[in-house]
Amino acid sequence: MTPKHEKQEFVTVLVRDPRTQKEDSWHSYIDYEIFIHTNSMCFTRKTSCVRRRFREFVWLRQRLQSNAVLIQLPELPSKTPFFNMNNPHHVDHRRQGLQEFLEKILQNALLLSDSRLHLFLQTQLSPEDMEACVCGQTKYSVADAIHKFASLNRRFPIEDEERKKGKNDADSDSESSSSGLGPSDDSISCGCKASTASEES
To answer: How far apart (Å, rounded) are the C-alpha atoms in residues 84 and 185?
Structure first.
């Protein structure tokens, strides 16, 4: 195949749909939907969406930085005491900052090899569970966690049929992920709206 016919890899990330979640009787927080669409072999799933809150982004940045000390990571939007979750401008400014952060992170091949990033983007695991999974302290692998989340949040039954049909082909000729996250999966959608974010702290 000549280079001009080769598919160019892309990763599209959108941070959108900020929602207020109740933490307890006195506290609320905002979480954001993260939508990923890609053809990159780095990703276990080609389409996914999860909900994450700001402090989980903070955790992700800290972990990525500790594993890539020579890389200058992009900054998150600053956490200000004047942030008002009832102010649409404040919320949208933070949303834009979070999207720009992820866009820059996803352009770096070294950071793309970090399993924590993939668990953050393609599962609803808590930071503690992501860390345990990456350290091999869970019964499931990174790829298992991503596939399980996708199967629990699938909106269209046709995806199950397509996956069953393609299972034999995938077993005999699976594409290895460059980040060690297992075979790729070309499902077309997932159920972002029925998220489990409210179960997280």
So the answer is: 39
Structural tokens at position 43? 């990703």
To which residue do tokens 């989340």 refer?
149
Residue 107 CA to residue 72 CA, distance in Å, equals 13
* Rg of the chain over all Cα atoms, to the nearest angstrom: 17
Can you tell me the distance from the alpha carbon of 52 to that of 55, in angstroms, rounded to the nearest whole number?
Answer: 8
Tokens of 195: 């998220």
- Residue pair 145/125 in contact (Cβ under 8 Å)? The answer is yes
Cβ atoms of 59 and 127 closer than 8 Å: yes
- Residue 96's pLDDT is what? 97
What's the confidence (pLDDT) of residue 86?
87
pTM value? 0.74
Query: Rounded to an integer, what distance in angstroms lies between the CA atom of residue 99 and that of residue 34?
Result: 8
The pLDDT value given to residue 81? 77
**pLDDT over threshold 60, residue 99:** yes
